[in-house]
Amino acid sequence: MKFKRYTLISLVLITISLETVEAQEKGTFRVNGGLTYGSKFGVEEDFSDSKGALGFNLGAEYLVGEDIGLALGYSQYAKQNATFSEDGFTIDAEVWVSTIDFDLRYYFLSDAVQVYGLLGYSNVKVTAEISLFGFTEKDSETDNAFNLGMGAMFPLSEKVAINTQAKWHKMSEEGHFVANLGIMFQLN
């Protein structure tokens, strides 16, 4: 019974999407915002290893052709608290990651549901605020990442869509998975 209900709801939503979506064309400008997850953008409480972290992302895309878009994005991941001991001293730290992403998108499908592949570059910044003996020191490091992934936009109306995206960040030493879920607004 539940399966039939979900199937019927899905068919209705797809039908509405097919009738309300506006054709994608050169010169279209979009903005988006939402949630992001980075599989290695957090730290364990004892700094022993990296772990996943949630955050938010903001972005914009300009279509330079019917099937090609240039996207710029910013992601900020939640601060992670960590404590570790070394040589009898306890060190407290807050660590967070932010990224600036430049992606080239190619749309394989640009009808009702818009599906794209992406290739790009990210500047990944890791910031740590370390406290020891009541003194606090803030330091950051940056790394470059190569991005490869896919995404899809599911229209809710003519100018609003749900945007999903998954990509692999390959940094200098290791790679990790990044997923985004948000809402996209077409401005023109």
TrEMBL record:
Organism, as annotated: Reichenbachiella faecimaris
The name of this protein is Opacity protein
Outer membrane protein beta-barrel domain mapped to chain residues: 9-164
- What InterPro entries does the record tag this protein with? Beta-barrel_OMP, OMP/PagP_B-barrel
Keyword terms, alphabetized = Signal
